[in-house]
Q: What sequence folds into this?
C-alpha cells in the first residue's frame, strides 16, 4: 500500500467507514497477530492484543500523521500492548520485572561447537522450530521485541529504531546480541547436536 | 561439517555482528566485501552465519494465520463502539470540562487578592505567582496545536517556576477501582458537581482574554482548543480509562513522570531549565485540590505531579462533539 493509499484509508477510517477499517484489519492482521503471538506466547492473548491494537489505532487515528508507515505505527501499538500485558502478568506472578533497560547482556559470547548437521537441516524439523520459539520467550522483553520486529515483521533497522525509539545506530548491535543469546539458548538446550568428540567444547581450540 | 572439534570464537564476535547485519541486508557493499573475505578463511564464522541464518529463517517463515473471527470480531467491536460514541462522549466530557474548570480556576486564582503576594496562605498560589509573559494565540487548526505547544513550551521554559517542594510520589495510586463501568455509575452527580463550577469558567474568560482572544469557553470548546500558557497549580492526573490515549486533553507536568507512562503514552519532553523536568502528557487532566477526590473517582488515574498546566483539548473530531 502506498503512502497515498494509506492516507486515503486513514481519512476514510476517521470518517467512520467500517469497510475501510476492515481493510486495515485484513491487510495487517497477520503481522500484528504474529507480533503479539511471539511476544506473549499465547494465541488467546495475541488475539486480544491484535483486536485492541486495531481499535486503539482507530480511536487514536487523529494522532497518526503519516510520519511512519501505517504498519510501523500498528506494530508500535501492538508492541506496547504486548509489553503492558507481559508486565501485568509478571506482576500477578510476583516475578521479577525485567525492565526495558535490561538488554539481556550476560557477557556470553557465541561459542560454536562443531555441529553434526547443517543448522538449516536441523531447524527444518518441526520440534526444533518449536524450540526456537520456546527459547525466544526466554529472552528479555526488549530483545524479544527487536527480533520479532526484525525477523517476524521484516522491519528495517531504521524502522525498528523509530518504532522502539532507540538511539541511532544501536539497532545493529542490539539485534546481534539478541540473536547471540537466542543461539546460546538453543545450544544449551541441545537443539543442535554436537559432534561426539566435543564434550570439552567450552575449552576449545581454534580450527 | 568439519569434525575438528570446537573453537573459541570470541575474537570473531565483531565479524559475527557483521554477519547478523549482512543477513538483514544492512551492510554497505564495502562491508559485504570485507565480510566475504573473512568468511572465506574463517570456519567458525561460516558456522555462525549458517546458524544465525537458519534461526532468522524459522522466524520469518513460521507465520501463524490469525483466526478468521479476528477480523470479523474486530469489525463488530468497531461498529459497536461507533454506535456508542455518543455515550462515550458523555464520559469524555469530563475531561473537557476539567480543562474548562482548570481555565476557570486559573482566572479565579489570578483575580484572587492573595495571588498578588499572598504567600503561603493558599497552597495553590505558588505556581500562579510565577506567571508567564508569553501570550498564546490559539492556532487555527487543532492539528497544528501540538507543534504550537512545543514552541510555547520552549518560549516559556524559564518563566513559570515550579515550587521548590517536590511533588508527592508520582506513582501514588489515586484510586483503587479501575473499571470503566464504575466511571459511568454516577454521571449525574459528578456532572452536577462539575457544572456548578462552569459559570466560573466564563468569569475567567475576561481575564485570560489575551491568551484566548475574544473567545468564550464555549467557543473554544467548540473549536477544539482550550489554551492557557500560564502555570496552573493543581494536581495532574493521568487517566487510565479505556481509550485514554487520545489527545483529548494534554497537560504540562513540571517534574518527573513515571517511566511506564512516559514510554507507553508517548509523552514529549519539553525544554526546561537545568535540573528540572517538564513533560507534555497526553490525556491527563489538571484539577485543584478540592476537585482531586472527585476526579480521581471519575478517572481512576495516577497522580502525576502537583504542578500542571492544561494547555488544550486537541484533536476532537466534530462528530465526537455531540452528546
A:
Amino acid at each position: 500500500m502506498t503512502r497515498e493509499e494509506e492516507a486515503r484509508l486513514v481519512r476514510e477510517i476517521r470518517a467512520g467507514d467500517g469497510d475501510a477499517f476492515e481493510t486495515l484489519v485484513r491487510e495487517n492482521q497477520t503481522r500484528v497477530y504474529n507480533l503479539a503471538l511471539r511476544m506473549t506466547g499465547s494465541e488467546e492473548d495475541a488475539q486480544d492484543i491484535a483486536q485492541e491494537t486495531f481499535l486503539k489505532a482507530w480511536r487514536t487515528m487523529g494522532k497518526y500523521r503519516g510520519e511512519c508507515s501505517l504498519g510501523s505505527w500498528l506494530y508500535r501499538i501492538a508492541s506496547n500492548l504486548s509489553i503492558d500485558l507481559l508486565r501485568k502478568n509478571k506482576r500477578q506472578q510476583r516475578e521479577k520485572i525485567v525492565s526495558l533497560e535490561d538488554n539481556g547482556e550476560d557477557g556470553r559470547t557465541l561459542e560454536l561447537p562443531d555441529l553434526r548437521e547443517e543448522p538449516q537441516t536441523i531447524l527444518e524439523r518441526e520440534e526444533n522450530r518449536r524450540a526456537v520459539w520456546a527459547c525466544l520467550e526466554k529472552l528479555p522483553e526488549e530483545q524479544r521485541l527487536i527480533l520479532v520486529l526484525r525477523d517476524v515483521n521484516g522491519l528495517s533497522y531504521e524502522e525498528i529504531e523509530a518504532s522502539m525509539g532507540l538511539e541511532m545506530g544501536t539497532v545493529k548491535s542490539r539485534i546481534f546480541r539478541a540473536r547471540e543469546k537466542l543461539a546460546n539458548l538453543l545450544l544449551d538446550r541441545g537443539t543442535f547436536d554436537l559432534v561426539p568428540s566435543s564434550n570439552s567444547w567450552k575449552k576449545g581450540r581454534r580450527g | 561439517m568439519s569434525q575438528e572439534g570446537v573453537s573459541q570464537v570470541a575474537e570473531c564476535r565483531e565479524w559475527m555482528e557483521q554477519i547478523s547485519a549482512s543477513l538483514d541486508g544492512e551492510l554497505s557493499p564495502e562491508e559485504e566485501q570485507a565480510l566475504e573475505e573473512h568468511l572465506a578463511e574463517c570456519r567458525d564464522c561460516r558456522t555462525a552465519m549458517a546458524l544465525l541464518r537458519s534461526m532468522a529463517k524459522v522466524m520469518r517463515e513460521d507465520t501463524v494465520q490469525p483466526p478468521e473471527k479476528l477480523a470479523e470480531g474486530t469489525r463488530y467491536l468497531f461498529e459497536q463502539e461507533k454506535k456508542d460514541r455518543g455515550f462515550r462522549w458523555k464520559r469524555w466530557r469530563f475531561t473537557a470540562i476539567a480543562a474548562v474548570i482548570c481555565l476557570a480556576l486559573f482566572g479565579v486564582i489570578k483575580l484572587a487578592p492573595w495571588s498578588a503576594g499572598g504567600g503561603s496562605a493558599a497552597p495553590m498560589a505558588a505556581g500562579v505567582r510565577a506567571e508567564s509573559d508569553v501570550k498564546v494565540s490559539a492556532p487555527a487548526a487543532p492539528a497544528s496545536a501540538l507543534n504550537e505547544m512545543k514552541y510555547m513550551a520552549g518560549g516559556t521554559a524559564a518563566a513559570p517556576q515550579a515550587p521548590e517542594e517536590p511533588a508527592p510520589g508520582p506513582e501514588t495510586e489515586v484510586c483503587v477501582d479501575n473499571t470503566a463501568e464504575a466511571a459511568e455509575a454516577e454521571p449525574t452527580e459528578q456532572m452536577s458537581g462539575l457544572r456548578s463550577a462552569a459559570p466560573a469558567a466564563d468569569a475567567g474568560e475576561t481575564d485570560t482574554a489575551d491568551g484566548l482572544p475574544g473567545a468564550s469557553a464555549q467557543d473554544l470548546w467548540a473549536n477544539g482548543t482550550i489554551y492557557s500558557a500560564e502555570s496552573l497549580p493543581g494536581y495532574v492526573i493521568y487517566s487510565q480509562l479505556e481509550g485514554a490515549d487520545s489527545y483529548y486533553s494534554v497537560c504540562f507536568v513540571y517534574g518527573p513522570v513515571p517511566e511506564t507512562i512516559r514510554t507507553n503514552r508517548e509523552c514529549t519532553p519539553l525544554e526546561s531549565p537545568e535540573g528540572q523536568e517538564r513533560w507534555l502528557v497526553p490525556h491527563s487532566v489538571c484539577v485543584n485540590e478540592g476537585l482531586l477526590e472527585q476526579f480521581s473517582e471519575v478517572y481512576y488515574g495516577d497522580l502525576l505531579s502537583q504542578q500542571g498546566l492544561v494547555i488544550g483539548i486537541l484533536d476532537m473530531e466534530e462528530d465526537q462533539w455531540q452528546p
Notes: The mean pLDDT of chain B is 53. The first strand of chain B starts at residue 232 and ends at 238. Residues 88-320 of chain B form one domain. Chain B touches chain A through 59 residues (CB under 8 Å).
